[in-house]
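User: tokens in, sequence out, please.
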């Protein structure tokens, strides 16, 4: 082979080898740098970011309040006191007629666990006696067979809602049966904070409400700053609540409130007579 041809081939091979070496020098450091950067503290990889996202979601779901639960001071606005026609299968169809709405407001606070004597001989708790009264009321409601009637049952002390956040229920025999089963599961516990419940009840304005109580009103919770100042002007929570009911009625809230007392003292009975009168209703002993 001629000498000049050998030289040309050698030069070309050397050039190609240099180019290859330079290419490898460029590619591999960049890849290594990318790998190291992904592993640096504080710089999560794509997989780490996915895990972190799941962890943040779990943290938020635990720390944020449950929006539809019954364990918050803002529970009552989630409960239906007023009238709204339901599209459920068991709701009778009512065309061009106004629904009649009734809500039962039941005291299941600590005071309802106390024993009372019924019919001068039988010992029972205030809670059990209230449930017996409610069962009779539900039977009477269902027997009216009025397709316009709707009802709900809401408790205070601990907050529970028969309609479970849904529409008021039709006054059918089946719904009365379900309500009686629901009542049997109630337990007496909590403080008798009836202000928040009555405030929402008068806000939604059912046609009528029946409240069954076993003691005086407890201190209101979660008042605005203005209402906190007003509360201090009254000697107790009961007088404050009475003033608020009078105000709601004066402002045009048309709901009538009947009150039934269970095991009340003479002073408590007198108070609830005043409260029922202020709300356009009547007081009865059970």
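Assistant: Sequence out:
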């Amino acid at each position: 082979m001629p000498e000049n041809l050998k030289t040309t081939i050698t030069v070309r091979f050397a050039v190609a080898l240099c180019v290859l070496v330079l290419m490898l020098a460029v590619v591999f450091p960049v890849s290594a740098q990318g790998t190291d950067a992904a592993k640096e503290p504080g710089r999560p990889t794509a997989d780490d970011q996915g895990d972190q996202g799941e962890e943040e979601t779990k943290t938020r779901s635990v720390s944020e309040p449950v929006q539809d639960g019954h364990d918050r001071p803002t529970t009552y606005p989630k409960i239906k006191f007023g009238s709204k026609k339901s599209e459920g299968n068991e709701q009778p169809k009512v065309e061009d007629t106004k629904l009649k709405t009734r809500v039962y407001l039941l005291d299941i606070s600590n005071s309802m666990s106390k024993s009372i004597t019924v019919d001068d001989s039988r010992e029972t708790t205030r809670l059990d006696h209230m449930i017996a009264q409610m069962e009779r009321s539900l039977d009477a409601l269902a027997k009216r067979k009025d397709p316009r009637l709707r009802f709900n049952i809401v408790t205070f002390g601990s907050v529970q809602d028969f309609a479970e956040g849904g529409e008021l229920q039709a006054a059918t025999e089946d719904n009365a049966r379900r309500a009686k089963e629901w009542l049997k599961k109630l337990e007496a516990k909590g403080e008798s904070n009836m202000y928040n419940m009555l405030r929402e009840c008068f806000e939604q304005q059912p046609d009528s409400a029946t409240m069954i109580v076993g003691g005086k009103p407890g201190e209101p919770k979660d008042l605005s700053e203005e209402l906190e100042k007003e509360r201090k002007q009254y000697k107790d929570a009961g007088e404050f609540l009475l003033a608020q009911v009078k105000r709601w009625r004066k402002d045009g809230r048309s709901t009538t409130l009947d009150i039934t007392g269970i095991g009340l003292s003479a002073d408590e009975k007198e108070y609830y007579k005043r409260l029922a009168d202020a709300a356009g209703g009547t007081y009865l002993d059970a």
